C-alpha cells in the first residue's frame, strides 16, 4: 500500500457507517429485542436482498427494497433456538440442523422500519410483526388469521418471497414488510396434498415441505415447534 494511503472499510461501507453499525450492535446486545438497520453497501445487505429479489416467483413486478433491518432477539429466544438447532444436528447428523432462510408475511399495524428513525416496536397487540420480533413465533396463534393451515397447525414460511408477500398487510404505511427467518428444517418430508390434520411432522421427520404441484402453486415450509424458527431480518419494500 502506498505511503499515506488509508485502507478502505470492507464491503464498501464508509467509516461513519461502520462506526454506527458497530455501536448499534453493542447497543443491541444490551437492549434486545431490537432492530438495527443494515447498511446498503454491506455484504449482508446484498445477500438478503438478492435472495428476496431472486425468489420473487409470481408474475408481478419485483418490488424495490427500501430498508433492511437486522433483528436482535431476546437472549432467551436465541438460547432456545440454539438448543433446538443443536439437538436436531446431533440426532439427525445434519450440519446446523439443516437451517435455512425462509420468508414470512404478516400484519403490520405500524410504520416500523419505514425510515431510519422508526426503529421502536409498537405496543399494539394486533401488530403481528412487532409481536413476532418481540417474542418470536407462537404455535398457539397458528391459523388465527386465515383459519386455514394446509398442513395443519404449524408455523408457515416459504422460500418464495412473493408467496410470503400474499400474507403481508397493514394500513398504517404505504410500504410492505416481510420477515426473513432462520428455520431449522432438519429431516423434511415433502407433501403435495393437503393434510389439515397435522399437529406435528410425520414420524421420523422434523418439518413438512409443501411442494409445488398437486394442491400448491408455490412452496411452503412448516415447523411445529416454536424453537425451530427465529426472525432474523425485516425487509421493508414497495
TrEMBL record:
<dbReference type="Pfam" id="PF00644">
    <property type="entry name" value="PARP"/>
</dbReference>
<feature type="domain" description="PARP catalytic">
    <location>
        <begin position="128"/>
        <end position="210"/>
    </location>
</feature>
<dbReference type="GO" id="GO:0003950">
    <property type="term" value="F:NAD+ poly-ADP-ribosyltransferase activity"/>
</dbReference>
<protein>
    <submittedName>
        <fullName>ADP-ribosylation</fullName>
    </submittedName>
</protein>
<dbReference type="InterPro" id="IPR012317">
    <property type="entry name" value="Poly(ADP-ribose)pol_cat_dom"/>
</dbReference>
Amino acid at each position: 500500500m502506498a505511503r499515506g494511503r488509508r485502507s478502505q472499510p470492507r464491503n464498501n461501507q464508509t467509516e461513519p457507517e461502520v462506526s454506527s453499525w458497530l455501536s448499534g450492535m453493542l447497543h443491541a446486545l444490551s437492549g434486545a429485542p431490537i432492530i438495527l438497520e443494515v447498511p446498503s453497501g454491506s455484504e449482508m445487505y446484498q445477500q438478503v436482498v438478492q435472495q428476496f429479489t431472486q425468489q420473487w416467483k409470481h408474475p408481478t413486478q419485483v418490488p424495490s427494497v427500501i430498508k433492511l433491518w437486522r433483528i436482535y432477539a431476546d437472549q432467551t429466544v436465541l438460547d432456545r433456538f440454539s438448543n433446538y438447532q443443536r439437538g436436531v444436528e446431533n440426532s439427525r447428523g445434519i450440519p446446523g440442523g439443516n437451517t435455512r432462510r425462509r420468508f414470512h408475511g404478516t400484519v403490520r399495524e405500524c410504520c416500523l422500519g419505514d425510515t431510519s428513525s422508526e426503529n421502536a416496536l409498537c405496543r399494539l397487540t394486533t401488530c403481528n410483526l412487532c409481536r413476532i420480533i418481540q417474542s418470536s413465533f407462537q404455535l398457539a396463534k397458528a391459523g388465527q388469521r386465515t383459519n386455514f393451515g394446509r398442513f395443519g397447525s404449524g408455523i408457515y414460511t416459504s422460500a418464495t418471497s412473493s408467496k410470503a408477500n400474499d400474507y403481508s398487510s397493514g394500513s398504517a404505511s404505504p410500504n410492505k414488510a416481510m420477515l426473513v427467518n432462520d428455520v431449522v428444517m432438519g429431516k423434511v418430508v415433502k407433501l403435495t396434498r393437503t393434510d389439515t390434520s397435522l399437529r406435528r411432522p410425520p414420524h421420523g421427520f422434523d418439518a413438512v415441505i409443501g411442494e409445488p404441484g398437486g394442491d400448491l402453486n408455490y412452496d411452503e415450509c412448516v415447523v411445529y415447534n416454536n424453537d425451530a424458527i427465529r426472525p432474523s431480518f425485516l425487509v421493508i419494500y414497495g
